[in-house]
Specification:
Distance between the termini of chain B: 21 Å
Radius of gyration of chain B: 16 Å
Largest sheet of chain B: 9 strands, mixed
Helix content of chain B: under 10%
CATH topology of chain A: Protocatechuate 3,4-Dioxygenase, subunit A
CATH superfamily of chain B: Aromatic compound dioxygenase
Number of strands of chain B: 12
Radius of gyration of chain A: 19 Å
Order of helices and strands of chain B: EEEEEEEEHHEEEE
CATH architecture of chain A: Sandwich
CATH class of chain A: Mainly Beta
Structural class of chain A: mainly beta
Largest sheet of chain A: 5 strands, mixed
CATH architecture of chain B: Sandwich
Oligomer: heterodimer
CATH class of chain B: Mainly Beta
Distance between the termini of chain A: 25 Å
CATH topology of chain B: Protocatechuate 3,4-Dioxygenase, subunit A
CATH superfamily of chain A: Aromatic compound dioxygenase
Number of helices of chain B: 2
Structural class of chain B: mainly beta
Strand content of chain B: 25-35%
Number of domains of chain A: 1
Shape of chain A: globular
Order of helices and strands of chain A: EHEEEEEEEEHEEE
Shape of chain B: globular
Number of domains of chain B: 1
Bound molecules: fe (ii) ion
Largest interface: A-B, 74 and 65 residues
Chain lengths: 233, 173
């Protein structure tokens, strides 16, 4: 049996360090030892497959109980590719987010802003055969957090991706263009490379925007590619 | 070509996407030796991480309609995760070598900008002595952080110490 093709190492500076002291939560949770190097094996180069039959897609977050949620409707759409530009088809994409007032429908969120009974804030879709996905949701509000004096998270949507392997797992956050809070956010700024950081900011897109209905934002995501690829014609 | 998108922390509110049934990998009727894999996720002060997301993946037994191979568990107020799964067998290593039975673990949480990857091996498995990854960890005490220990009635326990004394070996995959 031939060895599985490994996924390539992350490009320098494009991923945040575990030790990111401006984000206080990392202080007691980052390992002090270096990650142990190892060759990828079948454990890392394979991964779970999810089927829409078993995990019903939920792409519209704006109608939790048959009534419309409060806030600005937005469409978030994009393409998932690997580092060679190939689409990642049929992969599960999950999102979760605060409502329009900046409050999560979560018992640990005690921010004094109203919950919206018609907005739960979770979605799940699968990419099509071109790697495309699309959600209809509500623009999330900013919310305060106890990291430093007068700390507020910029508007963001949490994203979860799997891709083809355990090694391609990605959790990230999507931000909005022009948000003044981005300049002060230690989580966003934990990504050292400016270009890699700015790719977390969605792009307003008039082609995704639906007339008289909802603004559209494009958020394209790249998952790790294989370190060496077989020749293609 | 663009490089892989940057990771961001999963934060404290990831439970909005949680389906607690995912912690039971036998829920679709998998055959094989049923085990519980459990342990606490602890921070640099030894305090429980009560808001973590622990994910596991095992390439054996092969994923099928009756066995997803993948699971996700929250941690409770004591920082404890808990999976029900099927005990894996050995899988190929690179070259002609074999890997001892193991389960891959990814810890995601508030305060972690990226997932931390480790493995749970099974104490007493004779293949542990020749497993390429375990052999590559020179210090026995460090190696031991990847070994789950039997805790009675099919339960295996492995704590994950994120930082400090007894810090778990995390893998650069
Ligand atoms: Fe958030």
């Amino acid at each position: 049996m031939s060895d599985p093709l490994p996924f390539r190492p992350y490009a320098p500076g494009t991923q945040p360090p575990y030790d990111a002291p401006a984000y206080l939560g990392t202080v007691k949770r980052h390992p002090k030892q270096k990650l142990h190097p190892m060759p990828q094996t079948v454990t890392e180069t394979t991964g779970p497959r999810f089927s829409p039959n078993r995990f019903p897609p939920l792409g519209d977050l704006t109608m939790a109980k048959g009534k419309p949620a409060i806030g600005e409707r937005i469409i978030v759409a994009g393409t998932i590719t690997d580092e060679d530009g190939r689409p990642v088809p049929n992969t599960m994409v999950e999102i979760w987010q605060a409502n329009a007032t900046g409050r999560y429908d979560h018992p640990a969120d005690q921010h004094d802003a109203p919950l919206d009974p018609n907005f739960h804030g979770m979605g799940r879709v699968f990419t099509d055969d071109q790697g495309r996905y699309r959600f209809l949701t509500i623009r999330p509000g900013a919310y305060p957090w106890p990291n430093h004096k007068n700390a507020w998270r910029p508007n963001h949507i949490h994203f979860s991706y799997f891709g083809p392997a355990f090694a391609t797992r990605l959790i990230t956050q999507m931000y909005f263009p022009g948000d003044p809070l981005l300049a002060f956010d230690p989580i966003f700024h934990a990504v050292p490379d400016e270009h890699a950081r700015n790719r977390l900011i969605a792009v307003f897109d008039l082609d995704i925007t639906e007339a008289d209905y909802a603004l559209g934002y494009r958020f394209d995501v790249v998952l790790r590619g294989r370190a060496a690829t077989p020749m293609e014609d | 070509m663009p490089t892989a998108t940057a990771s961001q922390t999963i934060g404290p509110y990831w439970h909005l996407m949680e389906d607690p049934s995912w912690a039971d990998l036998t829920r679709f009727g998998a055959a094989g030796e049923k085990i519980t894999l459990t342990g606490a996720v602890l921070d640099g002060d030894g305090k429980p991480c009560a808001d973590a997301c622990v994910e596991i993946w095992q390439p054996d037994p092969p994923a099928s309609d009756s066995f997803p191979g993948f699971g996700r568990s929250n941690t409770d107020s004591a920082g404890v995760y808990r999976f029900t799964t099927v005990k894996p067998g050995p899988v190929p290593a690179r070259g002609n070598a074999q890997q001892a039975p193991h389960i891959a673990i990814c810890v995601l949480s508030r305060g972690l900008m990226r997932g931390l990857v480790t493995r749970a091996y099974f104490e007493g498995d004779r293949l542990n002595d020749t497993d390429p990854l375990l052999m590559s960890i020179e210090e026995p005490a460090r190696r031991a952080t990847l070994i789950a220990r039997p805790a009675g009635s099919g339960t295996w326990r492995m704590d994950v110490r994120l930082q400090g004394e007894g810090e778990t070996v995390f893998l650069d995959v």
